[in-house]
Amino acid sequence: MMLAISETGLWSNLRVRKSRARHRTMTCSNSSNEGNTELGSVLGGRLYLGMDFGTSGARFALIDKQGTTHAEGKRDYPLFMALSGPKLRISLTKLTESLEKSEETMDWARSWKSTLFSLLEDVPSHLREIVTSISIDGTSATTLIVDSNTGEPLWRPFLYNESCPEALPTVRSIAPENHTVCSGSSTLCKLVSWWEREDSQRKSALLMHQADWLLWLLHGKIGVSDYNNALKVGYDPELDAYPSWLLSQPYSQILPSVRPPGTSIGHVKEDIRSQFGFPEDCVVCAGTTDSIAAFLAARASQPGKAVTSLGSTLAIKLLSTTRVEDARFGVYSHRLDDKWLVGGASNTGGAVLRQIFTDEQLEKLSANINPMVPSPLDYYPLKTAGERFPVADPNMAPRLDPRPQSDVEFLHGIFESIARIEAKGYGLLKDLGATEVDEVFTAGGGAKNDKWTKIRERVLGLPVSCASQTEAAYGAALLALKGAQ
To answer: From the CB of residue 461, how many other CB atoms can be counted at a distance below 10 Å?
Structure first.
């Protein structure tokens, strides 16, 4: 799955163009002669399409065999509300706190499907005809229960961060101690929660993850997943099979078949090909989760290399020769060919900063921080109570006191405290038996803050740099390239 892609591309003159549809395409130079020559060279090659379905929107990236990006774009999810009477479409900008309280009323499946076709439409039409393969990543543990004949959802999707604590006792009674599924937000807990409340539709039901379902819309072979997405339903990637303790359960009949990420599932359906102009030999490949796609994009290909994602939350992933699993600390391992991607996700991160500072304030205050001087402030920045990793404590309270008079000192203390949590996370992985980290690449919005990077470098005692590629869609495109090969 780790691909050696050179940094040179087929096009030497590229520019970025932003359209009203909120997507960007990398296009040829304005010179007509030069453009025709370069367009011909692209048409003589093949391109690989990856799509990332994240928490708030989706992106696509179109790359060639050398890893050069030829088109990319973004779409916000059109949010449809499943209200009594006609379903109501609401613009994303109008949804704030009310959205968080009404996620159960959102028709997410309809929104994701609409976004998928919008992204396909955003791919430049003259490039679609040379797309060789397609892959998609989705948010981990986002779960759909669908009709095995029609693919239509039988229940509203369970979102990635949704917890089903009522199912946890049942799951703990059947799974090995401290297994990854022993978390209220695991896919298995969501499946058990649905199974225990729904009788009439069990026989026709099928479990699919977000990426599985979206890929099914393209290839038409229902019930196919990948071993990254299937990890949190209990699939054992080391055995490459569902374990016996899971197969003995009555709901095992609705589990999907599992393939390695990036392997070919089948050709794009004829109706999709005709609608969008993809070639007859275009294949659809098994996907992965969004965080793994982001790791692949960073190309941290050797054991000891790690990627820290500094977005709304703090997530770390380390490439290890050893598999590490411990639900007590929110630690689990994904398989990457013959290695393991070990990590966890903390609730600290950029969401806390956005509660306190605007982007303009963050920029101005950061400029006055001396990153080489340690901050004496000891915080545990959380948006709300509860932590997942490196401490699993659903009742942990945020700690942001005392607040100094200087906002520069306050921000410095928050940066330093988040860096300490990151360091504790990597230390925990080592203590549990993972390969020791020796270099960290950074993805997410926090990667752009140079002062924070220098603070983290000092606290971690490791080289820290911004990943050359940070978009999960690029990692999904690498999987599409892998499948084509």
So the answer is: 8
